[in-house]
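Example 9 (inverse folding). The structure is encoded as follows.
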């Protein structure tokens, strides 16, 4: 009984130290959870998903936004419009404090 608990704990540590194994374990663990499945699928497709990152303290007191433009065929005006839309979205939903760093993916 005690030996199996020790082995199980070692396996958990190995899984948690490897981000890919931990992701797979989390997906398998939540395979019957419809909310989890919906959130995982929405990450790549839902434009309302906002990712918050803390990128250090290089610019204290400044609010930085990381905006991804994935469409390589867009012109300047389209990228400018998408950038303004992403900044507007981040200002509304991203908090707006100088400590939070917003990241919004524009598709």
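The amino acid assigned to each position is listed next.
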């Amino acid at each position: 009984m005690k030996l199996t608990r020790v082995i199980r704990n070692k396996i958990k540590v190995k899984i948690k130290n490897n981000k890919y194994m931990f992701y797979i374990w989390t997906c398998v663990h939540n395979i019957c959870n419809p909310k989890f499945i919906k959130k995982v699928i929405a990450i790549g497709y839902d434009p309302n998903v906002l990712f918050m990152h803390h990128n250090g303290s290089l610019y204290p007191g400044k609010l930085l936004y990381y905006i991804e433009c994935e469409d390589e065929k867009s012109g300047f005006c389209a990228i400018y419009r998408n950038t303004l839309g992403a900044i507007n979205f981040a200002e509304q939903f991203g908090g707006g404090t100088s400590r939070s760093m917003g990241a919004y993916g524009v598709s």
